[in-house]
Give the backbone structure.
Amino acid sequence: MVNDKRACLHICVTCRRDNRQSEPEAAEPVPGRLLHDAVAGLLDRGPNSSGLEVQPVICLANCDRGCSAILSAPGKWAYMVGGLGPEHAADVIAYGEARASLVRDVSAACPVEEENAFDAAVARAAEVARPGDAVLLFQPIVGG
Ligand code: FES
């Protein structure tokens, strides 16, 4: 079950990285499935402090750019990446955890507030910033 507050990696388990149109051999491993299983295995073994989840999906309509994955979170934009393979499992996890890491690291240096819309972020920055302050508006990997 998908946690309703944390980021989730949706990995296409039917992706073939070589963009073949022919049917694969029955015993042939599907690269998308291998990527999903590798990511799931690493998340099971590691600390996964961000609570990142992984879900298998069947076709993200990005078959020409497989293996494909989507990073999503409730109330946030979702991002698709393609051209992946099982060897990218650790990179996919780093991508999924980047938002939490970025917020944590920046929070150590200065106040961080999050808004779900750019207009709201600009309005909030204008409200709290004083003359001479620097305001950093950034859209994290899973952001609004
Ligand atoms: S088979 Fe993976 S995006 Fe279509």
Q: What stands out?
A: The pocket of FE2/S2 (inorganic) cluster is lined by residues 12, 14-15, 32, 59-63, 66, 68 (CB under 6 Å). Helices lie at 31-45, 89-107, 118-128. The CA atoms of residues 50 and 97 lie 6 Å apart. DSSP finds three helices and four strands in the chain.
